[in-house]
Amino acid sequence: MEKRVLGRTGLEVSVVGLGCNNFGGMIRSLDTEGARKVVHAALDAGITLLDTSDSYGVNGGSEITLGEVLGDRRKDVVLATKFASPLNREKSNRYNGSRGYIMNAVEDSLRRLKTDYIDLYQYHFPDPQTPVEETLRALDDLVKQGKVRYLGCSNLPAWMLVDASWTSRHHNLHSLQSTQAEYNLISRTAETELFPAMHRTGMTLLPYFPLASGLLTGKYRKGQALPEDTRMNMAHFKSGLTDANLDKVEKLIGFSEARGRTILELAFSWLACQPIVSSVIAGATRPEQVVANAAAASWNLTAAELAEIDTICK
CB–CB of 244/250 below 8 Å? Predict the structure, then answer.
């Protein structure tokens, strides 16, 4: 599988990554053996980036599961996790980027993941109560201690990326190299403000929801009933089932089928054609899904095809 560098670093990641939010008791959760099959299928397909968070699953369940299933194959992966999200919302709803919180959180993640270093440690959601300099100084110390190799973030607005970049340069601190945001053929709002900020700071994107919560799988068609037991039956995701989005989906299906491809291949390959993208984060609950996702990013879209897609999705 194609490898790309992360931000302004020498770290290479597979162009398709595995999102591990389905492990350990979150959304449609897999048990340890189910997760083992998915992870091993990902590694066998050439996927090297595994992305999780201490808040995925019950009591850090996703990290615990990854720690169990990786074993000797830990050395073969780029292991990414996150901090700041509350692990127990009954006690706190605060996103926490304070020094004290980070120093405890990283030790807990290392223990759950059964590793002595994290390849990519990501600030999950911004904490408005903590100055960004405090957060960055704590993360800089973790890099110097060897507990973390590279730094990233997720869900930070554009102005915070620029502020964090300036703060890192001004104080000679290790800087954020990547950010995660929702980005796909249906949701392209990141292009307006986030992309210019990323170009200015040298950061690269790890897009999540590449299939728009299932809209870009071809399972949801205009005028047809929703399939049973799918994410779109959950109220949070159903909001995406608008006539406008379904019209786009029908046009994108037609575009793909006219070229002997599927809309799944189009969704991944279009993201892979964006120079700012390092790796496309996609979850999976079955090994065959991982194999399909890994193979889906190989369509080299031409400039004319990209322009036609823009016309459909404008």
Answer: no
Q: Which fold has domain 3-213+267-300?
A: TIM Barrel (3.20.20)
The C-alpha atoms of residue 237 and residue 239 are separated, in whole angstroms, by: 5
The token pair at 169 is: 């340069």
Question: 147 with 112: CB under 8 angstroms?
Answer: no
What DSSP string runs through 172-199?
Answer: T---EEEEEEE-SSS--GGGTTHHHHHH
State the pLDDT at residue 26. Answer: 60
Tokens standing for residue 17: 């990554």
Q: Partners of 206 in the beta sheet?
A: 180
Question: Minimal CA–CA distance to 62: which of 98, 19, 94?
Answer: 19
Could you tell me if 287 and 160 are in contact, meaning their C-beta atoms sit under 8 angstroms apart?
no
Task: Name the least confident of 22-26, 83-87, 174-178.
Answer: 22-26
- 230 CA to centre of own chain: 20
Q: Give dist(CA 268, CA 27) in Å, integer.
A: 22
The residues assigned a catalytic role are 56
CA dihedral 121, 177, 85, 238 (to 10 degrees): -120
In sequence order, the 6+-apart residues with CB closer than 8 A to the CB of 224 are: none
In angstroms, rounded to a whole number, what is the distance separating the alpha carbons of residues 253 and 44? 29
Q: In this structure, are residues 182 and 208 in contact, taking their beta carbons and an 8 Å threshold?
A: yes
Which structure tokens are listed for 55? 């808040």
Record the pTM.
0.92
Closest CA to 213 of 47, 28, 65: 28
Determine the angle formed by the axes of helices 243-257 and 263-272, rounding to 10 degrees: 90
Residue-level pLDDT at 236? 44
CA 2 from chain centre, in angstroms, equals: 17
